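Researcher: Let's run the pair from yesterday's discussion. Sequence first, then tokens, for each.
Model: Starting with the first of the pair.
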Amino acid sequence: MPTSRRALLGAGAAGVGLAVAGAVPSLAQANPGRPRPAAGNTPFPPLVDDPNGILALPTGFSYAIVTRTGVTKLDHGQGRTPSDHDGMAVFDAGHGRYTIIQNHEIDPGAEHGVPHVKGTVYDPSAVDAGGCTVITTDRAGRNLGEFVGISGTVSNCAGGPTPWGSWLTCEETDDRAGDQWEEGDRSGVFQKDHGYVFEVTADGKADPRPIKCLGRYAHEAVAIGKDRTSVYLSEDAGGPNGLFYRWTAPRGVKLGPGVFTGLAPNAGVLAAMAIVMDDGSVLPDVAYLTSAQLGRPFPVRWVEVPERDAQSKAVREQFADGQVTRGKKFEGVWGTDEGVYVVNSYAWDEGELPADATPHDGMVWFYNYRDQTIQLVTYFPHQPTAEDGSAAKYTDLTFDGPDNVTVTPWGSLVLAEDGAGASHVLSSFPGGPTYAIARNQLNDSEFCGPTFTADGKVLFVNMQDPGLTLAITGPWEKYLG
């Protein structure tokens, strides 16, 4: 997420969204659904400015602040809440409480980095860097405690929940052991390679070992397939553009608690997506497809990564032109019973897409497990305001830069914006429009990590700067159901 367009005032226009139908029983299970048209929906009311200047919401909705960087305290004297809140997931903790596992997308030397707590540290030299905290809260958004789940990691961007109630946190970097870091008057040298996925549990029993079989690159997000033998991963990188990956478990291995860290670094098969065209050729970049192909399924094949730990060459550089399909800013990933969603945030500037491809301000894709096809389900056409710095005329109708994605308990999508102009939390309805359901009224910082409780009562979301975790409540079912 670090390559946002925050310096610009413009934004892209909303596209038509196709999303999932079905119901989500809990985050401990895969979410059902595939893209299919819906009979209709009730439009969200207009956003109303917040007298406190933080979060604009529709009438009937309210929010509470759960954590705040540098203000709320960590348990056991560990310090205060770290900064740069990012991806997260929420789990039912019983007795009206919820457990949130939350990323902090921080490079070393930050003012409010994740403190090193004994037993949670991966790289001791990554001081005041990224990691995860584990938060206890309730439907009212009260802060009932927070502690460090993993530390000594770098730029923990997004990730994904597991069916057994843990969180996979992703490092969006490819720093190597021996590389030097510098922040202000502080510096250090990494002792370990970075760019891995780690598993974080809600019980405080940290296991800061990288899951090397999932590869080393600028990870963004991850989702586990329904059969628990496959994992889908996105890469937010450029020069060349990043890839969408699938990892397949070794024969006889089914994923569950503690399985990942017991696998060998070369276990299973890591492969990159290639979208196959009618003539059998491989689509070079997703930006060649536009809203004209909304809903059309394209066959996919998976091309094995030659050297997944990227010791000699970055993973995405190991493929020749014509082997795989690239995309600028592969971002959020979220799995369902029938497939997985993946987002491309935008591609319009020089070098972000092939010269003869079509600029865009956001794409959402759905990959179907059974059919092994992928289809474009939401498309935000590019708007000049994202380039020339002019303000959008209709702030709450003009969207761009979708980033994190989640599936609601009613089957629609919620997207978090990280683009130009005003930042929104968005709702994309099956076969219908995209609505603004919240706007950052405090500044132009991105939203991150939207995630619904299984009962559909609370939407938790982060405002990355100044570092706020927000609990939003209201008549969600009326508008999403």
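Model: Moving on to the second of the pair.
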Amino acid sequence: MEAFTSGFAGLLDGIVGVAIHCFEFIGVIIIVAAGVKGFIQYVRKDPSVRLQLAQGMAQGLEFKLGSEILRTVVVRELSEVALVAAIIAVRAALTFLIHWEIRIEERTKLEAAGEKPPQKEG
């Protein structure tokens, strides 16, 4: 039974490790692609550059936050838990701020176009 438990734990560590690296990689690719696209839009003087860049950053951070959440599965010591929790808190705060910026940009864009921004229900 001990061999089965340790083998299963090793398999779980391997699967989670690969998933963490995949999520990190996807997040980095999305952020880099958004940065390159944002730079191109900036050079072309596209007025929606801030909104597009913020949306790309938010999407990339979501993947990176997912990798940190998965990382909590394989932590072994309390100090590791504290570090992962701090990273999750910082990334969640960044994601919140970027989504807030996106809402403001979208509202400003609608108001500039003469449209009424949608109101929150509830």
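Researcher: Give me one sentence on the second I can quote.
Model: The CA atoms of residues 69 and 77 lie 16 Å apart.
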